[in-house]
Each structure stands twice: as C-alpha cells, then as structure tokens.
Specification:
4% helix; six-stranded mixed beta sheet; 3 helices; 614 residues; Immunoglobulin-like; mainly beta; seven-stranded mixed beta sheet; 6 domains
Length: 614
C-alpha cells in the first residue's frame, strides 16, 4: 500500500484534469536515427505565466518507456524488456515548467545532440542527459502488458540504460505511462502500434523524427500539432522545434524565452497645426496573443487616430498576463497657411487696373467676374463692369491650405480716392491725428467725402525718428588732458550733455574719462658671477634677475666648451648640476651666454663667467 501511494504522488502532477493549476511532462520530439542513434525530448509543460519563479513539477520516479504491450502485443511490436525512470533523488524534486529534457542513447550518440548539461541552475532551461546517467534508474522487469503494472522500488537500480527504451524503426511507441489509470499520459506511436494511440504516424520511423510544432495550437495531444521529418534535416535535439515551439516554451517560463516580450510603437504626426489628426500604432513582439491594449487617452485598440500632438502611453498585456508600457510622441503639424488679402474698392467702371494685395505670396487668384482678374491678382474695373464681385486667394495645400475672399464693388461715375500722408516725430513727442494725440508708430485712417462727392479715405503714417543716447570712454595717461564739451578735462569722471540729431530730436551724450599710470619701467638684467651650491641655504643657486623683458635662451659651458645647463623663459636658475650627467659640477669657472629680450627693443646678448665654489 505504501509503495502504491508513492507511485500516486509521482504521477498525480502529470494529470491534465485541471490545466489552470497543474504541470505535466510531455513528449516534445522523438528521433529514430540514424541507426540506433535515438533520443527522446521532453518538456515540463504548464500554464503561461510572467511571474518568476515559475511552478515546478516533481519528476521523482516518473517512468519513461517504449511500447510495453499497450499499443500492440506480440512479436514485432517493439516491446523492449524493462523500463527507465527519473531517479528518486532531490535533483528531480522541483523541475521548473518550461524545462526541456533530452535523454539520448550514449551507446550510439546522435551527432546533433549537444554536450551534456546536467544542471538545473545554469539558467538555460535545458537538460542533456545520457541514458546511462545516475540521474536515471532502470529495471529489467518488464511491466504487465495489460495494466501497465510496473515493479516496486526494489526492482529499480541506479543508473539508466537505453536498452529498455530501444525503439524499433518499423513498429513501436514511446510513452509516459500512467500506472494509476493504465492509460499513458502522452505517447507517440508508428507502424502497427495502433491500439489506444495518442499521436500516431503510419509506416516506418527509420531515419525519421516526430516533433511537436504547435501548428494550430499548444495542445500536444492533438495530431494536427505534430509533424514528421527527416533526421539531420528536421530534428532539433536539445532545442525548441520551431518558432511556435519557442514561443510556447517561453510563455511558460520567461527565463526560457530567447526573445523577451517587447512593444514597438510608431506614429504619424499631425498634418497641420490644430488639425488633431495624428495617429499611433502599437505592435507587440514575441508575446502570447491575444493582446489587450490600454492607451493613456482611454482607447483599448491597437492604434489610436485623430488625436492632437502630445505624448501618449500604452500598456499592452499578453494572454498570459505579461505587460509592457511604452510612450510615443505625436508631433505637431506645420503652421496653417495665411491667405489674407487687403480690402479693395469700391471702384467705378472707368477706373484703371488695381493690384489686389495678399499678405503672403505664392497663392492662386480666382474670381466670379471672368477675365476681370489676372493670374497675378490685377483687377480691371472696366472689364468687370458695374456690380459686386467676389475675389478669392488660395494658399497652401491639403489640411494646411487657407483661402480668403473679399467683395469689390464697382459703381458708375464716382471714383473713391485714397490719400496718404507721412509724419515723423521724435521719441516722447506726439502728433494730433484726427482729433487724437498719438505717440506710437502706426497707420491711421479716416473716411471723408471728396470734392466730387465720392467716399474717400485719408491715411496718415506716423513714424518715430531714431534718437539713441551715446556713451563713450576715453583713456589717457596721468597728467594729460582731453577736450570734452568745449572744456579741457584733467580728472577722472563722467561728463554729459544733451544734443540733437539732424532730425531735431534730443539725446544724451556721455563721455567717461579715465586717467592711468603710463610710466614704463626700463628693462634691467642682473647675472651673478659666483655662487656656492653646497646646500647651506646661502647663495645655493645661480639665478638671473631681470625686469621689463624676458630671458629667451641661455647656456652654461665648462672650460672645455661642453654644455652643462640651458636656460629658457621659464627656467632662469642653475643649481650647479650637469643637466646631462645629473652630477654636481666641479668647482671652477664656467662661461655663460644669455639672450635677453627687453619689452620694447631688440634682443640683447650677455656673455661672462661664473665661479662655482662648494
């Protein structure tokens, strides 16, 4: 009874009666070649999830087997003595869903099988196990061919073997037996193994591979989701079988997904300012469909349209609850065209042609008076004749286009007049225009009746002269003077007076006077003739002292004419050490040659001797 309970505990997790909460081991691929180079690939299947760690399955003592008489009985049906199971060790106690498990015949290894991988913690969601591994157990006791009654634990020994699993090319099956119900949890059969089959392929399996390729769904017990192919060409030992298989495995365990769920966004900007006709599109990649969408504007479709410029976000959720949120910007459209035209008329039928003026160039003129209006907007009152005429101007294209129309009245006899006047004032002044004092630049108009009784308009254009203040600075030497505003100035200070422009406008003219010390010190250079570099801190250094110029270059030679030290603009001292040997020079007389450049004259040469005393 205790033994039976152990089998029940090992197989209850494989039942599929409650798929929302359970995991199950299923066959993912079976390879028959070449020769005896066989392998079987499993996947720990479960529900799609985005949460890690994912649920796991206890595989301890779970049995794998070929036909044991369930699918066909008698000779020639592929029955191999014994069976193999996952060892009763902690390694198999919790195998995460999405894990791919390959068990192969290491007595004749298929060349496509990857290197062994016996770790559940390396993060690749894959196990590559030779059939002889101690992770497996085997029994040589054949189960009953009628009720799948497998032997008790005492008949199983550590270390697997391919012999109990060896599959016949012509007629055989591979199964995950259920010792409780007697009906296999999952099976793949071929040839004459036709009794109670799950997945079945007719004919021989020689050099064939049978694979779960998720053709129409992720239901591994459906024949429509399986395919038969050729070894070396269609087999994928240790790897998912195709893109759909990859997506299915990855959906069960995000850590097993080669490509994570991502979201690509694209947008089309607004065509024209204030048109609010932009759009954005969300394209999920690698996730499990169907998807749900939630945009920041409340839309729940994969795209949004007819929206104004701005930043929009969308959260996309997969069928298994994975979600990604991204943002995208819909750009603003170009400015609306401005086709405004200035009012014109009224005219009489005897007036000469008039140019109708648009604010912006490049548009098209139209009218309802035929040839009275030219393509460039010239209106001819004589051709138009007496009446009210519509003149229109169109600019731009598409949603950004604009049109403006005016009505021109053509009458008989009287011709309205427009007179213009320009006035200029100084800043701060004002001018009386049509009864009002005005002090800002602009155009002012008033209608009146002329001597002929025609309605006319007088326009006054008011402009303001430029009269800006002037500020200047004069810098002089001490004891000099400068003539400022009709007086001689001897001291620092600000001096100002009001002046007028040629237009008669007043402005302030300010002069800042600044006296500076302009005395230039004469250039001087001193070169010592003796020093004592004995580190007593008294006269230890030969130092060139100068002002009003710079030492461009200099040299120290010994009595044999050998160079022992060099001077430059940033090096005007000598500590008595030969710069080549790095050793102290001997006591004695040395020759110096120094080139000094005064600030305001040509280069000078100084030649002499210096005595070194230690």
């Amino acid at each position: 009874m205790i033994q039976m309970f152990r089998y029940i505990a090992a197989f209850l997790a494989l039942l599929i009666s409650s798929p929302v909460f359970t995991q199950q081991l299923m066959i993912n691929e079976v390879s028959q070649g070449p020769g005896s180079s066989e392998y079987v690939e499993f996947v720990v299947a479960g529900n799609a999830t985005c949460i890690t760690p994912v649920p796991c399955l206890d595989l301890r003592k779970v049995i794998i087997d070929d036909n044991n008489g369930y699918f066909a009985t008698g000779a020639g049906t592929g029955i191999a003595g014994g069976a193999v199971r996952f060892a009763n060790i902690s390694f198999w106690q919790c195998v995460p869903q999405g894990t791919l498990i390959l068990i192969y015949n290491d007595g004749s290894t298929n060349p496509g099988v990857p290197s062994d991988d016996l770790s559940l913690t390396d993060g690749n969601c894959t196990l590559i196990i030779p059939s002889s591994s101690t992770l497996l157990e085997k029994t040589t006791v054949s189960p009953s061919t009628t009720n799948s009654s497998y032997p008790p634990d005492a008949s199983w020994v550590a270390g697997g073997s391919w012999n109990p699993l060896a599959m016949s090319n012509t007629n055989d099956s591979f199964q995950l037996p259920n010792i409780i119900t007697g009906i296999p949890n999952h099976s793949v059969s071929w040839g004459n193994n036709t009794n109670g089959t799950g997945i079945y392929f007719s004919g021989s399996a020689a050099d064939k591979v049978f694979s779960f390729v998720n053709t129409v769904s992720n239901v591994w017990t459906s024949q429509a989701n399986w395919a038969s192919g050729d070894v070396f060409v269609n087999e994928t030992p240790g790897y998912p079988n195709n893109a759909a298989n990859i997506a299915w495995i990855g959906a069960m365990n995000p850590q097993c997904a080669p490509n994570p769920f991502e979201l690509n966004l694209s947008s089309v900007g607004e065509t024209c300012e204030n048109a609010c006709d932009g759009s954005a599109f969300a394209t999920p990649v690698n996730g499990q469909a169907p998807y749900t969408y939630l945009w920041s504007n409340g839309s729940i479709t994969s795209s949004i349209s007819n929206v104004c410029p701005g930043v929009y976000s969308v959260e996309v959720t997969t069928a298994n609850g994975c979600s990604v949120t991204e943002t995208i910007t819909i750009t603003a459209g170009s400015s609306q065209a401005n086709a405004s035209i200035n009012p014109a008329g009224p005219f009489t039928n005897t007036d000469v042609t008039q140019q109708i003026v648009a604010i912006n160039n490049g548009g098209t003129w139209t009218s309802d008076c035929g040839t009275c209006l030219s393509a460039s907007g010239v209106f001819n009152p004589q051709i138009a004749g007496i009446g009210s005429w519509s003149i229109c101007y169109s600019l731009g294209a598409g949603a950004c286009a604009d049109q403006d129309c005016i009505t021109i009245l053509v009458t008989e006899g009287c011709t309205p007049q427009i007179t213009n006047e320009t006035r200029n004032i100084c800043p701060g002044d004002s001018s009386l225009i049509f009864g009002n004092w005005e002090n800002s630049e602009g155009q002012f108009s008033m209608g009146y009746t002329d001597i002929s009784g025609c309605d006319s308009t007088h326009i006054i254009n008011l402009a303001i002269y430029v009269a800006e203040d002037i500020f200047e600075t004069r810098t002089l030497c001490e004891f000099d003077s400068t003539f400022v505003f009709n007086q001689w100035i001897f001291n620092d200070g600000l001096y100002s007076q009001q002046e007028q422009t040629a237009d008669g406008c007043f402005y302030n003219h300010t002069i800042e006077v600044d006296f500076q010390n302009c005395i230039i010190e004469p250039p001087v250079i001193f070169i010592p003739n003796v020093f004592t570099p004995n580190n007593d801190l008294i006269n230890d250094t030969f130092a060139i002292v100068f002002q009003g110029g710079m030492v461009e270059e200099g040299y120290i030679f010994n009595r044999w004419g050998n160079l022992v030290h060099t001077f430059g603009p940033n090096n005007v001292t000598w500590d008595g050490i030969d710069s080549k040997s790095g050793q102290d020079v001997q006591d004695g007389v040395y020759t110096y040659l120094v080139y000094f450049k005064p600030a305001y004259s040509g280069r000078e040469e100084y030649h002499g001797f210096v005595t070194v005393i230690r």
